[in-house]
Amino acid sequence: MKQIKVAPVSRIEGHAQITIDVDESGKATDARLNIMEIRGFEKFLQGRPIEEAPRTVTQICGICPVSHHLASAKAVDDNFGVETAPTAKLLRELMQYGQYIHSHALHFYFLAAPDFVFGPDSDPKQRNVFGIIAANPELAVQAVKHRKIGQQIVEATGGRSISPVTFVPGGITKGLTKEDVDRLLPMAKQAVEYSKSALALAKPIFNQYIDAIKQLGSAESMHLGLVKNGNLELYDGTLRLLGKDGSIVKEFNPKDYLQYIAEYVYPHSYLKAPYWKEMGWENGMYRVSPLSRINVCDKISTPLANAELQEFRKAFGRPAQHTLLYHYARLIELLYASERAVEMLSDPAIMGKDLRAPVKPRAATGVGVIEAPRGTLIHDYDTDEKGFITRANIIVATAHNNKAINVGLKNTAQKIINSATPPEGILNRMEMVIRAYDPCFSCATHTVAGKMPLEVIINRPDGREVIRR
Questions:
Q1: Which residues are annotated as a binding site?
Q2: Which of 51, 85, 86, 298 lies deepest, with the highest CB count within 10 Å?
Q3: Pfam families from the entry (predicted)?
């Protein structure tokens, strides 16, 4: 047996390697994702006051700080047993839409688009963000402006455009003034126009590459995501698991996730792999993602995004399973987030003064679940009677998708790799499978089987070992 290694995987957040096994004839027999980063935030949180958690977890990742801030904030409020102050809840939700605007725009224009604009077999020197800038400067400028709108919404509600700081237990530290709303509302309306333009640009390209969409990353699965009254939901609601046949397997309170989700540890990775507990590891694979969210919802509450959803479903059915359709679904969500930002900024309630609810420390468990841009994010904390964290569990979207990514890599390798020295374009197609998930490996890796898989060796200058732990 021979092995092909694709390292590092490009245009993703974090570090990853693909290992492909080939037989003597050069035919691929297996492929898997290797993630060897170590992140210790679940341990870092232990012993800390729970009110510090939402500001601490933003440091997990510079791409996903809002997601962690908000999921942690919901977990903390749940731990204190308090309902978030009404205006604070609106502002946190608006922050969520700001994050979606900048995160989804980033992924489409700068990470995904080069594969489709230039083609999977194009020169990698051109197949990147700099190639996009050179080929279409106006589009690149629009992409930057689109992202900036999202970041300015986050800054206005979170105090900073990266790693927000405005959480307090039961609320938020700052509200929006009329001047803030007058500044942000035209931006949100512009984000709607930019989102419409992105869809208009992307749909013909997706049609052009429909064969690749059908071929790459095959991993038929169940899908999990939040819904509220059947609508697409990104901040609150119930979790719905949709079966492969389109039937609803289960809809449940997100706080009860441990009743339904278990975690498996691959021997080749530090990234855990959750699965639907009652179906077991072999049959319990599900995915979370923009595609999963538009699969599990019945409709979208905003008119433009809902019209795009109906068009999407006429073309690909429900549930749609092709992994590369994540890019299409992401653009529908980008439009939805922009429309919701307009709706919220048009509502005078967003300028309310009810920003904080009183709280008292207690020994309790708190669970917070939101839809991060990459999929369902869970924060779960236990505290003692003084409000110090005794246990923390974080399950991120990339972990939920871990098994599907590995299945998709294996299925793709067996379809397209017939040589121990495949051309770069073939290996790029393997990377495209991973890029479709927009994975965030810095967020995703924690501990294996409860232990940190790390050995520390300290040597003297002459090479003699002093300590091994």
A1: 42, 61, 64, 394, 440, 443, 446
A2: 85
A3: NiFeSe_Hases
Nearest to 444, CA basis, from 72, 42, 101, 76: 42
Strands in 13-128 per DSSP E:
17-22, 28-34
* CA-based nearest residue to 228, from 371, 94, 352, 359: 371
Is residue 54 reached through a cis peptide bond, with omega within 30 degrees of 0 on the bond before it?
no
pLDDT tens by residue, 277-318 = 999 999 999 999 999 999 999 999 999 999 999 999 999 999
Indicate the helix (H) or strand (E) that contains 75.
helix 65-80
Binding residue ranges for Ni(2+):
61, 64, 440
The pLDDT score that the predictor gives to residue 268 is 72
Sheet (strand 364-372) strand order? 364-372, 375-383, 389-395
Cα within 13 Å of Cα(364), Cβ side: 17
Distance in angstroms (rounded) separating the CA atoms of residues 446 and 453: 10
What are the binding residues for Mg(2+)? 42, 394, 446
CATH of domain 83-218+322-354: 1.10.645.10
Q: Backbone dihedral region of 14: left (phi > 0), alpha (psi from -120 to 50 degrees) or beta? A: left
Q: Is 54 strand, coil or helix? A: helix
Annotated binding residues for Fe cation: 64, 443
Q: Please give the structure tokens belonging to residue 353.
A: 């003064």
66 and 102 in contact (C-beta within 8 Å)? no
Q: Which residues of 45-63 are buried (b: 16+ CB within 10 A; e: fewer)?
A: beebebbebbbbbbebbeb
Position 464, amino acid? R
Can you tell me the distance from the alpha carbon of 106 to that of 216, in angstroms, rounded to the nearest whole number? Answer: 22
pLDDT tens per residue, range 10-66: 666 666 778 898 888 888 998 887 765 566 788 889 999 999 999 999 888 777 899
User: Which pLDDT tens digit goes with each residue over 405-416?
Assistant: 999 999 999 999
Q: Is 5 exposed, middle or buried (0-12, 13-18, 19+ CB in 10 A)?
A: exposed
Pairwise CA distance, residues 90 & 111, whole Å: 31
